[in-house]
Specification:
This protein starts with 6 loop residues before the first strand and ends in a 15-residue tail after the last helix. It folds into three domains: 7-98, 2-Layer Sandwich (Uridine Diphospho-n-acetylenolpyruvylglucosamine Reductase, domain 2); 104-214, Uridine Diphospho-n-acetylenolpyruvylglucosamine Reductase, domain 3 (2-Layer Sandwich), CATH 3.30.465.10; 218-417, FAD-linked oxidases, C-terminal domain (Vanillyl-alcohol Oxidase, Chain A, domain 3, 3-Layer(aba) Sandwich), CATH 3.40.462.10. With 463 residues, it is of the alpha+beta class. The protein has helices at 31-37, 58-71, 120-129, 145-151, 158-161, 189-195, 229-242, 279-283, 300-304, 306-317, 336-345, 393-412, 427-434, 438-448; strands spanning 7-8, 26-28, 46-47, 51-54, 75-78, 94-97, 104-107, 111-115, 132-133, 168-175, 180-183, 203-211, 213-214, 218-226, 247-254, 260-270, 294-299, 327-332, 357-363, 379-385, 416-417. The chain is built from 14 helices and 21 strands. The chain binds flavin-adenine dinucleotide.
Length: 463
């Protein structure tokens, strides 16, 4: 590795005396494969594994966990590696690359059974053929199902349906003990709760049954421009209360004049001719700058897949592969205006222009998964600084230090963080983050991963 960022020197190979189990998939100790698994979207943390397993069957995952347990090795599951802080990496351990587990097993009128390595785009294409959709999708569909369920999953319809993890009916999981288990709210509920938004600590998800609802065919997309932050926050909170739009997402965007602009992206899904949206009704009483609104029609799929299209442009420009020290938190509504204003004063609009700052209101009453930690107020705001920085270590270190400062300020206000961020955290920070569910999580870790085999790089549990 030669990009100048923090690398931890890795053990070069598996000890010679170790006998590998038989895998039906591919177990690779090849250097290029290991180097790829020592990287992620953040381009900041690099932990070199000893080997990468691409399982061909759930049994391969069982075998590799049992093998690792027997030999004192560590294992981390990896989906698409879109983490920003090494969450899916393991130093001198084994990566389970789930991209090979990507089959859709069954599609019913209200649910889909899908392997954990499948992409949301694959699932949505299949469900839309039957006129169905998951209630909540992430903004970027080229994430894996397993990687998203491991963090929680929040999207523009979350204000109505909660997190993606709140829409899961059943899971198949390989625990840290190396057992393949099925769990749901009624069967093995402790395992179910420990795996959803459980950051890969207690089990490797191999299959999920996701809830489906009828999909509309089109999306009428409104971009509404606001005069200031307060007006954006006000209307965002209004719209998640009255529910007149199906999708609500706020943005703070840089302008060419080194200023911020405040935008709401709100969407009405419809299937003509029955439920044509009434623009006048939808926009009434809102305080955007009249006349600046932009309205466009898209198919439901094209709207849902728009970030994949935008990413293709960034990939072509080369900036997709730059470091992304992202900052993602949930801020109590009572503090959000002041908190975001202060955060923006430390950021220059000139540093952005590629990916936005997100600011979206959510109703906490719709969120039910205990490990996805939200502030206790009725309304909270997801605040995400999706920075891209040029690849130099000083610039990245500065952004990471700023993230820590913003994290502490938000925490002091009663906020929580969304653990997809690039924030340096100690065991004590994690214990405080999980708060009243910490003991429950620790109990689950001891029960389902008694030898601390799984996903330790995040430093959640003391070893
Ligand atoms: C461009 C972009 C857009 C995004 N948009 C959204 C969004 O709209 N909403 C949102 O909520 N998030 C969003 N995210 C964040 C994203 O959901 C998380 O980073 C997610 O973890 C990435 O999925 P992945 O498949 O790349 O997971 P990885 O980065 O591969 O893994 C993430 C974590 O999950 C664990 N994990 C992976 N697979 C499994 C498994 N099968 N079983 C158990 N644990 C597993 C890993 O060990 C790791 O801890 C976005 C990220 C990017 C880069």
């Amino acid at each position: 590795m030669s990009d100048g960022f923090s690398h931890v020197a890795g053990q070069a190979s598996l000890p010679a005396h170790i006998h590998l189990p038989q895998f039906s998939g591919v177990f690779s100790t090849e250097e290029t494969t290991r180097n790829l698994a020592a990287d992620d979207f953040g381009r900041y943390v690099h932990r070199l594994p000893l080997a990468v397993l691409k399982p061909a069957a759930f049994d391969d995952v069982v075998r590799v966990v049992q093998f690792a347990r027997q030999h004192g090795l560590k294992v981390a599951p990896r989906g698409q590696g879109h983490s920003t802080h090494g969450q899916a990496q393991v130093e001198a351990g084994i990566i389970v690359d789930t991209t090979s587990l990507n089959t859709i097993h069954a599609l019913h009128a209200d649910r889909v059974d899908v392997e954990a390595g499948a992409l949301w785009s694959t699932v949505l294409r299949a469900t839309l053929e039957q006129g169905l959709t998951p209630p909540v999708l992430p903004d970027y569909l080229d994430l894996s199902i397993g990687g998203t369920l491991a963090v929680g999953g929040v999207g523009g319809t979350s204000y109505r349906y909660g997190a993606i993890v709140d829409n899961v009916l059943e899971l198949q999981v390989v625990t840290g003990e190396g057992k393949l288990e099925t769990c749901s709210p009624n069967h093995q509920p402790e395992l179910f709760a420990a795996v959803l938004a459980g950051l890969g600590q207690c089990g490797i998800l191999v299959k999920a049954t996701l809830r489906l609802i009828p999909a509309k065919r089109y999306a009428r997309v409104f971009h509404l421009f606001y005069p200031n932050l307060a007006a954006l926050i006000h209307d965002d909170a209004t719209l998640i209360t009255d529910g007149r739009f199906d999708y609500v997402q706020g943005y703070v965007l840089p302008t060419p004049h080194d200023e911020w602009s405040y935008v709401l992206e709100v969407v009405s899904f419809y299937t003509p001719p029955a439920d044509q949206p009434d623009n006048a009704h939808l926009l009434s009483g809102l305080s955007f700058i009249t006349g600046t609104e932009q309205i466009e029609e898209k198919s439901y799929f094209d709207f849902s897949n728009r970030v994949v299209t935008q990413a293709a442009v960034l990939k072509e420009k080369g900036v997709w592969h730059h470091p992304h020290p992202w900052f993602d938190v949930f801020v109590p509504a009572s503090e959000v205006e002041h908190y975001v204003s202060v955060a923006l004063t430390d950021l220059s609009p000139n540093d952005f222009g590629l990916l936005p700052i997100l600011l979206s209101a959510l109703n906490t009453s719709c969120f039910h998964s205990p490990l996805l930690r939200l502030p206790t107020e009725e309304t909270v705001f997801a605040f995400d600084i999706l920075r891209t920085v040029t690849p130099n270590p000083e610039g990245v270190a500065k952004a990471v230090a700023h993230n820590r400062q913003l994290f502490e300020h938000n925490r002091a206000l009663g906020g929580t963080h969304y653990p997809i961020s690039t924030i340096e955290l100690s065991h004590a920070d994690w214990e405080r983050h999980f708060g009243q569910v910490w003991e429950q999580f620790l109990h689950a870790k001891r029960r389902f991963d008694p030898d601390n085999v799984l996903t330790l790089g995040q430093g959640i549990f003391p070893i």
